[in-house]
Design goal:
By secondary structure, the protein is of the alpha+beta class. The chain has one domain: Winged helix-like DNA-binding domain superfamily/Winged helix DNA-binding domain (Arc Repressor Mutant, subunit A, Orthogonal Bundle), CATH 1.10.10.10. Helices cover 58% and strands 14% of the residues. The protein contains 5 helices and 3 strands. Strands 1-3-2 form a 3-stranded antiparallel β-sheet. Helix 3 crosses helix 4. The radius of gyration is 14 Å and the shape is globular. The termini are far apart.
Length: 102
């Protein structure tokens, strides 16, 4: 019953994705790599809240982190996230995030 296992995994990861802040994070990270602080600021949440969201998304394989000195950068690791976000934007009228955190 591999298919049911795959559906179970898909459902778990889609539940993680189904949060407004996490969707904002996906949209932001599809445009580049950012630190927790930059992501938190762009999404209007505290750093520790952003870290928890990122941890959940990373556990599902959506994001990866890379340390450079004292800074940790997050990037999208799941290539299908751009297609998922395109569907969400088309269906719900979400405008692509043109503002980059610096």
């Amino acid at each position: 019953m591999n298919r049911s296992v795959n559906f179970q995994q898909a459902a778990e990861c889609l539940k993680v994705l189904a949060h407004p802040v996490r969707l904002q994070m996906v949209q932001l990270l599809l445009a580049g790599r950012y630190t927790v602080g930059e992501i938190a600021e762009a999404c209007g949440v505290l750093d520790n809240v952003a870290s928890e969201h990122l941890r959940l998304m990373q556990r599902c394989g959506f994001f990866v982190s890379e340390r450079e000195g004292r800074r940790v950068f997050y990037t999208v690791s799941e290539p299908h996230l751009s297609e998922i976000m395109a569907c969400i934007e088309a269906r719900f009228g979400v405008e692509p995030n043109m503002e980059e955190a610096t």
